[in-house]
Amino acid sequence: MAPITVLLVDDDPRILTIFAEMVAAAPGLRLAGTAGDLPQGRRLLDELRPDVLLVDLGLPSGSGIELIRHAHQQLPATDVMVVSVFGDDAHIMASLEAGATGYLLKDSDPADLAAAVRALRAGGSPISPVIARHLLQRLAPVPAGPVDGEALLSPQERQVLTYSAKGFSFEEIARMLGVSRHTVMTYVKRSYRKLQVHSKTEAIYEARKLGLVRD
Description:
This protein is α/β, with parallel strands linked by helices. The chain has helices spanning 13-25, 38-48, 64-74, 89-98, 113-121, 129-138, 149-152, 155-165, 170-177, 181-195, 200-209, and strands spanning 4-9, 29-35, 52-55, 58-59, 62-63, 79-84, 102-105. The chain folds into two domains: 4-138, Rossmann fold; 149-209, Arc Repressor Mutant, subunit A.
């Protein structure tokens, strides 16, 4: 299996070195490149098209949120995880709305970084506990009347969630549907956005509530 390629964007040379060494040493991961500012990060992102982008928010030449949005719009197969000192609601929500699917604080144990990258690539949403607490408080479900589930998700998105609920990996689903993993991940990200969730487990749970996935 090909290694997971990772691009790091952070303006702190010390943090960049620590994370780069950890990614380079982790089995199954490969360091694609590093950048210290927004322009360089965007250029490397477009050139390298990594599997995973790890990005800080406070960059000297602009906000990392701009890079998250660029990745989400131009490279849907690239998973994005924020690694930042900012843990307030404004930064969290702006990052998630821009397209990030993971959010770690820099006080997290660096040794957990490789596991978080693997979990992100597998369809999960690694989030620091304090960030999860913010989300639980802010994103409590609000009743909005009946929802037509079949109109909400496309047939392809429902099929991918159905196979995911049965335990198939994204690679296996791609083979069964006769499409690329990139296409499957596009369906997955679209369903997350439509269902307003941030992980495969949450997506399957919501889809079951809407009657889109049955065991």
